[in-house]
Design brief:
heterodimer, A: alpha+beta, Phosphorylase Kinase, domain 1, 2 domains, seven-stranded antiparallel β-sheet, B: mainly alpha, Rna Polymerase Sigma Factor, Chain: A, Arc Repressor Mutant, subunit A
Chain lengths: ~270, ~170
């Protein structure tokens, strides 16, 4: 191999990408045998290149959304500038919603019934989770309150909507932590609180369909009381072994705090 | 029109992946891809003879960078997409395979290094195409790529050793 060009960073990068011509490949391999520290770095870089590809691959496998179809984009271009697609679609949606509400109020009531049914099942799941974990002495929570910021960020990410753990000090409860739970194939978050007597309370939240807001619903199973409601697409259930009036004041306090955080959807890019 | 569609549509999956990797928000990423495709359609006739793929990725990256400049001018707004950047050590299944961490590492790099890793390492652009997208000479592509990979590697190694220290 006398007279060959010395190995450069461009050779090493082409090696990482698997893009070296055969003759040069042999030269780089020989170089790496003589330079184990560099060889180790190159190996790491190949692993990280593969990891990045594997992590991002899902996006290229998704079916193309219809709004990105070239035919649809070109058709939209021929429309008048007054009818910008997004604005037009939004206006049309409002017309449809208006018409549906006006003429088909019955459908609205039917969907209310469906929403109520969904709220009931979320409440059932929340109460079941409450029952299992409040009695747990060793591991009541997965992530404890001393990592509150991490806990809230983590659960928000998994549930898919920004959450917050309300401060219930005024009600005598302090946050002890939370956990992630499965609920009908979706991720749900449970925050657990405890008061000075060791009595526990849980706030359960999961993504709650299309409904933006409902009123409080109360139910009670075997001594566990629960108030549930939907707000901004999230179903909330607060559960505790306490009486209805006391739990209602806590539910209202939670609702007010969540409301005061503003509408997170407006912060979207 | 069929010709434009048959040339552009095969590029959409890659454009969506690059956009998502930069923005980490599905809606915002598809907005960026839509802007890219609309611009490509409107400038189809001005397209210089040359590489279509490099031309499209260049349009998309320039729109992304201009978008960042505009957002900076209006002040930063943090949306739900920021949630995706939150590290979840040991909690998500991906992290066990080191997959979550590699995105964290990517986020730690400046945009020009992120873009070069994505364009070459993920989108399989040639070094010449990458030079065209980033509007830099070929030699700069190679040294920037080398720097980006070294930074990612150092980030991943220091992240890992920090975890080990904590365990002790």
């Amino acid at each position: 191999m006398t007279g060959e060009r010395p190995i450069g960073e461009d050779d090493l990068q082409s090696f990482v990408d698997g893009r070296l011509p055969p003759a040069r490949l042999e030269a780089v391999k020989a170089y790496l045998v003589d330079h184990p520290a560099t060889a180790q770095q190159v190996e790491r870089e190949i692993e990280q290149r593969e990891a990045l590809r594997a992590r991002l691959n899902f996006k290229a496998q998704e079916p193309i959304p219809s709004r990105l179809r070239i035919a649809n984009l070109m058709a939209a271009r021929h429309r008048s500038a007054l009818f910008r697609p997004a604005a037009f679609a939004a206006a049309l949606a409002w017309l449809v919603i208006g018409g549906t509400l006006g003429a088909w109020g019955g459908i609205w009531w039917a969907s209310r019934a469906w929403i109520q049914a969904e709220a009931v099942s979320v409440a059932d799941n929340a109460i079941a989770a409450h029952r299992i974990y409040v009695s747990e002495r060793l591991h009541p929570v997965e992530v404890s309150a001393d990592q509150e910021a991490h806990l809230v960020q983590w659960l928000s990410r998994r549930v898919g909507k920004p959450l917050m753990a309300p401060n219930l000090n005024a009600q005598g409860y302090r946050l002890i932590g939370g956990r992630l739970l499965p609920d009908s194939g979706e991720a749900a978050a449970q925050f657990m609180y405890e008061n000075a007597d060791g009595s526990r309370l849980t706030l359960y939240a999961r993504s709650g369909g299309n409904e933006t807001q409902t009123s409080f619903r109360f139910e009670e199973h075997d001594g566990v009381s629960a108030f549930s409601w939907i707000d901004r697409g999230l179903s909330y259930v607060v559960s505790s072994k306490t009486d209805r009036a006391r739990l209602l004041s806590i539910a209202e306090a939670i609702y007010k705090q969540l409301d005061a955080t503003g509408d997170p959807a407006k912060g979207r890019l | 029109m069929d010709e434009i569609a048959s040339l552009l549509e095969p590029q959409i999956p890659g454009l969506r992946r690059y956009a998502w990797a930069l923005l980490r928000d599905c809606e915002a990423a598809d907005d960026l891809v839509q802007d890219t495709l609309e611009r490509a359609i409107s400038r189809w006739n001005q397209r210089r003879e040359g590489d279509l793929r490099a031309w499209l990725f260049a349009i998309q990256r320039n729109l992304f960078i201009n978008g960042i400049r505009q957002r900076k001018a209006r002040g930063t707004r943090v949306g739900e997409e920021a949630l995706n950047d939150v590290p979840a050590p040991g909690m998500s299944p991906e992290s066990h395979a080191g997959l979550h961490d590699v995105l964290k590492g990517l986020d730690a790099l400046p945009e020009e290094q992120r873009s070069i890793l994505l364009l070459i390492g993920v989108e399989d652009l040639s070094y010449e195409q990458a030079a065209q997208v980033l509007d830099i000479p070929l030699g700069t592509v190679m040294s920037r790529l080398s720097r980006a990979r070294a930074h990612l590697r150092e980030f991943m190694e220091s992240g890992r050793s920090a975890v080990l220290r904590r365990v002790k």
